[in-house]
Amino acid sequence: MTKTIFEKIIDREIPANIVYEDDDIIAFLDAFPVAKGHTLVVPKKVIENIYDLDEDTGAKLMSVVTRVANAVKDTFEPAGLNVVQNNGSYASQSVFHLHFHIIPRYKDQHDGFGYKWVDVEKEDNTPEIRSDLESALKNRLDA
């Protein structure tokens, strides 16, 4: 099986600007940043998407995501910050190894990130939808 670009970075087969690393997680500056300070946080364990993420790795990952986000805030003083994680090609996942984007946002500065909510006609969240989701969560929590 072919390694992803993140596996190659983890294995030091290609260079990266690594800003954090421990036994389980690595964080490095995005090679194609949409804003100054755009950083990726990646588990070293090969996990394709959030659906395959175990709770232990997830807890470690979110701890590092939080620390990196705060370091980006302290370093670059952005007006805001997005934390983005995509699952599947339809959701714009292009590297099929779980990762979080830490994207600082700067006031009055256009960046390459177009994440905006647009008002469109949408389905209401009905009690039936809530009930279905509660059941699915209960099944997963009881498993």
Automatic annotation (TrEMBL):
Signal peptide (from-to): none
Gene Ontology molecular functions: catalytic activity
List of catalytic residues: 99
Gene Ontology biological process terms in this record: nucleotide metabolic process
Gene3D superfamilies, A to Z: HIT-like (3.30.428.10)
Domain HIT: 5-115
Source taxon at top rank: Bacteria
A Pfam family annotated for this UniProt entry: HIT
Motif Histidine triad motif in this chain: 97-101
Protein name: HIT-like protein
